[in-house]
Amino acid sequence: MDDYVRLTYQGREFRLPLVAGSEGETAIDISRLRQETGLITLDPGFANTGSCRSAITFVDGERGILRYRGIPVEQLAERSTFKETAFLLINGALPTQKELTRFSVLLNDHSLVHEDMKIFYQSFPRSSHPMGILSAMVNALRSFYPELQNLEEEINITVTRLLSKVRTMAAMSYKISRGHTVVYPRSDLTYCANFLNMMFDSPVKPYELDPDVVKALNVFLILHADHEQNCSTAAVRVVGSARVNLYAAISAGIAALWGPLHGGANQAVIEMLTEMSRHGNLDAMVARAKDKNDSYRLMGFGHRVYKTYDPRARIMKQMAHVLLEKLKLSDPLLDVARELEAIALKDDYFIEHHLYPNVDFYSGIVLRAIGIPTNMFTVLFAIGRLPGWIAQWKESMDDPAWKLCRPRQVYSGPGERDYVPIEER
Ligand SMILES: CC(C)(COP(=O)(O)OP(=O)(O)OC[C@H]1O[C@@H](n2cnc3c(N)ncnc32)[C@H](O)[C@@H]1OP(=O)(O)O)[C@@H](O)C(=O)NCCC(=O)NCCS
Predict the structure, then answer these.
(1) Is the CB of 223 under 6 A from ligand 1?
(2) Order of strands across the sheet with 71-72?
(3) Could you tell me which residue, 189 or 112, shows the higher pLDDT?
C-alpha cells in the first residue's frame, strides 16, 4: 500500500504522508500542507478532520463498535463499575485491587465541597438550569483549590477531586433548587450509591438504596464515560490547549454538552416523547422531521459517527426494559419510544439517511425510572463524561505533538475599504 497521497496543484506534485491507526483507519497528514503549498483545508464541523492521535476510545460508526482502552463497552456495562471504568479511561488499564482501593480512598477524601461554595448556589435564580450552574461551579473550583503542579500525585488528587466533587455538587444543586437540606457524602457508600443517597435522602424520609437502581446508574454512567472527539471533548481539548487549568477546561466541556444537539438531547427526547404521548401524533411528528422546509428533528435519532444502531442505545433500551420490570413500574413514554423507533426504522427517509436511535433515545427513560428529574438529565451525562474529558485532557497535555488549537478560515468578507466618518454614512 502507498504511504502517501499525491496532490497536484498549479502544475506541481506534492506528497502527503498517510498515517495509520491501530485499528487500520487511515488519515492524510496535512500538517505541512500550508507550508509546502500555501493551501489550507476547509471542513465545516470537522466531519473529515482528525485533530489528534488518541489511545483512549475506539468508535467504529459503520460497525457499531465502542471500546474504552480496547475493552468493548458491552463488557464494561455488564461487569464493571463506573469507578473502575473511570480509572481505566484515565490511567489506561484496569486497576489492581490495591489501585482501586487507593482510588476509592482518594474519591472519599475529596468528596466534600467547600462550605463557602453553598453561598454561590443560593445566589443563582431558582429557575437556573443545573448545567449552567454546574459549569460555573466547576470553573469556580479553581478559586477554592490550588492549581495542580505537574507531579503525578498532585494530578491524581486534582482528578479525583473533580470526579468526586462534581458528583457532590450535582446532588447539591438539586437539593438547593428544591429548597431542601443538603445531604453530605458518606464514605461507606460506593460512588453511585453515594450520589443517589445525596440526591434522594431526606430527614423525613430516609432513602433506601436498591441494588438494581445502583447498577442501572453505573451502567448509564459507563455508557457515557467517553466517546472520542465529540463536541464537548473537543471543547475540553481546545480550551485546554491554551494551557488553562483543568477546571476551566472541564467547565467548557460542560457548557458544550448542554446543547440539545449534544448532551442536552436526553432532556429534549423526554420532552418530545411526552408531547407525543399527550397528543398521539407520532406520524405527524415523523413527517415534520422529514420535511426539508421544517427544522424540526426527531430527538435521539442520528449521530455524526454512528451510521448504524448506536451500541449504547441497544444496552440502554434493554436496561430500560429490565429496570422498569424489576421496579414494577410502567412508563408510557417507553411504549411511545418503542412505537416511534418501529415507525422510523421502517421509513425510507430514516433508512436512507442512516438515522438510528442514539444513546439519548432511551437514556431518559432509565433516568426517570431512577427518579432523576428531567432538568438533571444532562447533568448526569456530564458526571458520566467526566472521566473521558479528564483522560483526553491528560493525554493532550502529555502529547509530544501538542499544539495550541487555532484553526484557520477562508475569509469571505469585504475587501479593503476606507473608514467612513459617521456624518458621511
Ligand atoms: C446528532 C446530529 C447533530 C448529527 O448530525 P450531522 O452528522 O451533522 O448530520 P446532519 O445534521 O448533516 O444530518 C444529515 C441528514 O440527516 C438528517 N437528520 C439528521 N438527524 C436527523 C433527525 N434527528 N431527524 C430528522 N432528520 C435528521 C438531516 O436533516 C440531514 O438531511 P439532508 O442530508 O437531507 O439535509 C443530528 O443527527 C441530530 O440533530 N440529531 C438529533 C439530536 C440528537 O439526538 N443529538 C444527540 C446525539 S448523541
Answers:
(1) no
(2) 57-60, 65-68, 71-72
(3) 189
